[in-house]
């Protein structure tokens, strides 16, 4: 399970990188302009795919220039992708080493139609890139006014939500609160890992944009606790998330099923990007789990967007932390289980039409 290294924590040489994604018109450029023009004292290199409807250059950059990298007055650097991302990153890193460019972090703006998966994979598949950059997080902007239609009709929009470490909701002032609530609920079922935050005209504190450590292997698995309870109580509502755990790992939930029925628009969407959570208080057999996950990734890797877990494994008194993007999977030993701490394995899978029953039964079969 060690096909991807996520960079040693605290290694001083790695340059953090952030992927900014979101559907056309969601406000990525507005947010970027703010990052690029604000005096935050950080030197940022921005890489953008130049075939976007709304290029940043009409306001900030002189688009006629032959130079593909432009130094801005506040110390930021801007750059358009002429070849592929790997080449562009390698070029930026080389120029930084030579002292030609000075920057501390990189932001990559994807085009509105992009799937962030291959962009994220660039940071794990190429040794030179992995030794220079550390992928920090994927940020997704969602235009609340048009989101339902975009999510209904465009798989790219759903993928962008599935990949996110943080979701920013833009244009919330253009809709009523019930619409925002319904959308946040829908997004949470697609991706319970990503916190959601409203933004107004790109005004996001820098601390909410950078150093989120979404790809760090850490011992915290951020899943909204309400998602877990909602998940376990929806057995009899006819939805397709969370109603088939007849297993040991949901035995501690015995509340009334009706308590989550107060949201009329809970689940009228059947999105192909979904998430589900596996929990168990029995330890895993490491060899079985590795074989099973390896096989699953071979078959379903392209449809697996993000997956992450904090696991209780036989043979170690430490938590085992694992995560993956598509076919790339990595794991690491985390801190020891604390005395008296309940040893519960928790895994979240976010993907496109993943066969939940197969995964749940397979994971159940890997328990010691």
From TrEMBL:
Residues 232-271 are annotated as: Disordered. Signal peptide: none annotated. InterPro entries: CobW-likC_sf, CobW-like_C, CobW/HypB/UreG_nucleotide-bd, P-loop_NTPase, Zinc-reg_GTPase_activator. Residues 273-367 form the CobW C-terminal domain. Residues 232-262 have a biased composition (Basic and acidic residues). Pfam families: cobW, CobW_C. It catalyses: GTP + H2O = GDP + phosphate + H(+). Keywords: Chaperone, Hydrolase, Nucleotide-binding. PANTHER family: COBW DOMAIN-CONTAINING PROTEIN, COBW-RELATED. Zinc chaperone that directly transfers zinc cofactor to target proteins, thereby activating them. Zinc is transferred from the CXCC motif in the GTPase domain to the zinc binding site in target proteins in a process requiring GTP hydrolysis. Belongs to the SIMIBI class G3E GTPase family. ZNG1 subfamily. This is GTP-binding protein.
């Amino acid at each position: 399970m060690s096909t991807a290294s996520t960079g040693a924590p605290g290694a001083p040489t790695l340059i953090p990188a952030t992927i900014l994604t979101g559907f056309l018109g969601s406000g990525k450029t507005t947010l970027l302009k703010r990052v690029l023009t604000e005096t935050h004292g950080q030197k940022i290199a921005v890489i953008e795919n130049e075939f976007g409807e709304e290029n940043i250059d009409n306001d900030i950059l002189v688009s006629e220039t032959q130079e593909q990298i432009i130094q801005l007055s506040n110390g930021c650097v801007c750059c358009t992708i002429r070849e592929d991302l790997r080449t562009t990153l390698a070029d930026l890193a080389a120029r930084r080493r030579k002292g030609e460019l000075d920057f501390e972090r990189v932001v990559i703006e994807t085009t509105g139609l992009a799937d962030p998966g291959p962009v994220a994979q660039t940071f794990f598949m190429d040794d030179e890139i992995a030794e220079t950059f550390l992928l920090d997080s994927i940020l997704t902007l969602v235009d609340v006014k048009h989101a339902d239609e975009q999510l209904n009709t465009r798989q790219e929009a759903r993928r962008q939500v599935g990949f996110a470490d943080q979701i920013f909701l833009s244009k919330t002032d253009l809709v009523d609160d019930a619409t925002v609530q319904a959308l946040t609920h829908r997004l949470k079922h697609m991706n319970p890992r990503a916190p959601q935050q409203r933004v107004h005209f790109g005004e996001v504190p820098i601390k909410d944009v950078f150093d989120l450590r979404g790809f760090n292997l850490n011992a915290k698995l951020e899943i909204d606790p309400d998602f877990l309870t909602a998940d376990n109580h929806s057995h009899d509502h006819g939805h397709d998330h969370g109603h088939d755990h007849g297993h040991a790992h949901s035995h501690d939930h015995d509340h009334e099923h009706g308590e989550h029925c107060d949201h009329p628009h809970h689940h009228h969407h059947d999105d192909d990007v979904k998430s589900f959570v596996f929990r168990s208080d029995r330890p895993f057999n490491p060899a079985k789990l590795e074989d099973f996950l390896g096989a699953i990734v071979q078959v379903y890797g392209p449809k697996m967007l993000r997956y992450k877990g904090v696991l209780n494994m036989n043979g170690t008194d430490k938590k085992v932390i694992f995560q993956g993007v598509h076919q790339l999977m990595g794991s690491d030993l985390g801190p020891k289980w604390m005395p008296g701490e309940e040893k519960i394995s928790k895994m979240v899978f976010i993907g496109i039409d993943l066969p939940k029953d197969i995964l749940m039964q397979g994971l159940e079969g890997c328990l010691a």
